[in-house]
Design brief:
two-stranded antiparallel ribbon, single chain, elongated, alpha/beta, 16% strand, 5 helices
């Protein structure tokens, strides 16, 4: 007598996709991810044609440029002197503001700024940052952060002096006026390979 084959009952798999989706969603929501550190920069709008022509005609005077150089050994030179990363912020603040109107610092230009009236500002200053290809990314970011912090501190100090508020708490018009006095002008040269590590 021949045996009859038994049929194996099928498993209902219609909800498998739903369960997989719920598990994926659970792990995405409960898992923390490392966030990359980087530089938050907003690029300026492209210059108009007539402004480009003016910029080409204007040459920067040496006194208006602060040279910051990071070499392959992560040694930092600012304004011709070796400094630590902790000293960069103060050097930059001194350069940007030129409170003593020093002839070796950026020249001051008289401007009419809303809320402040006629003031003298170092609007033509530039901080030029160069680094060696061999310098570490960590030090590069640290120098960048210190330069940006110099502008932020100067803006906060001026906002506190004028309105007893931090720069971030001001209206857009007030912030714009302070940016006219302390415009952020950091120029980055393309990294070059100046030397070899020994």
């Amino acid at each position: 007598m021949a045996r009859k084959k038994r049929d194996v009952p099928e498993i209902n798999s219609s909800s498998t996709a739903d369960m997989a989706f719920i598990l994926l969603l659970f792990f995405l929501l409960t898992t923390s991810m490392d966030t990359d550190r980087g530089l938050a920069r907003q690029l300026p709008p492209p210059p108009q044609q007539e402004q480009q022509n003016q910029d080409n005609d204007t040459k920067l005077k040496e006194r208006n440029v602060l040279q910051v150089f990071l070499n392959l050994n992560d040694q930092l030179m600012c304004g011709g002197e070796y400094v630590t990363v902790d000293q960069v912020r103060d050097k930059a603040k001194e350069f940007i503001s030129n409170r003593a109107n020093d002839e070796k610092m950026p020249e001051k230009v008289t401007m009419n700024v809303p809320y402040f009236g006629t003031v003298q500002v170092t609007k033509n200053h530039v901080i030029s940052l160069r680094c060696d290809r061999g310098s570490s990314y960590k030090e590069y970011i640290a120098v960048q952060n210190e330069l940006v912090a110099a502008y932020n501190e100067l803006r906060d100090e001026l906002a506190q002096e004028k309105w007893q508020k931090n720069y971030a708490e001001l209206s857009e018009d007030q912030q714009s006026a302070i940016r006219e006095i302390y415009p952020q002008r950091i120029s980055e040269a393309e990294p070059k390979k100046y030397g070899e590590k020994k």
